[in-house]
C-alpha cells in the first residue's frame, strides 16, 4: 500500500489564480488537488494522460475539445488522452484530479523522486 500524508507536497503555482499539490502517486496513477481563486484559469493544453476531474467545491467552466460545460460541487468528468482542455473558475473552489499514467512532469516540478 502506498500512502502519502496530508502534506504530501507543497502547494505550487499552476497558472493565474491557481495552485496544485500532489496528494499521492504511483507509476500508473496520480492524484492531484487544485485550488482556484475566482477568475483563476487552467490554460488550454493537452497531454497523453487520461484524466478524471472531481469538483470538490466551487464552480468551473470547462472546455474540452471545443465543448463547454459548467460543473459544480459533486460533478465529475473524464478528459480523454490528448484532448485539448481548459477551465475558468467562476466561484472559488477546488478540484481533485487523477491522471493515468502519472504526470512525471508534475513530479519533476515538485522535486519528487521518480521511482
TrEMBL record:
Pfam families xrefs: Cupin_2
UniProt-listed SUPFAM superfamilies: RmlC-like cupins (SSF51182)
Top-level taxon of the source organism: Bacteria
Cited InterPro entries: Bacilysin_H2HPP_isomerase, Cupin_2, KdgF, RmlC-like_jellyroll, RmlC_Cupin_sf
Ranges for domain Cupin type-2: 33-91
PANTHER family registered for this protein in UniProt: H2HPP ISOMERASE
Protein name according to UniProt: Cupin domain-containing protein
Annotated source species: Roseibium porphyridii
Lineage of origin: Bacteria, Pseudomonadati, Pseudomonadota, Alphaproteobacteria, Hyphomicrobiales
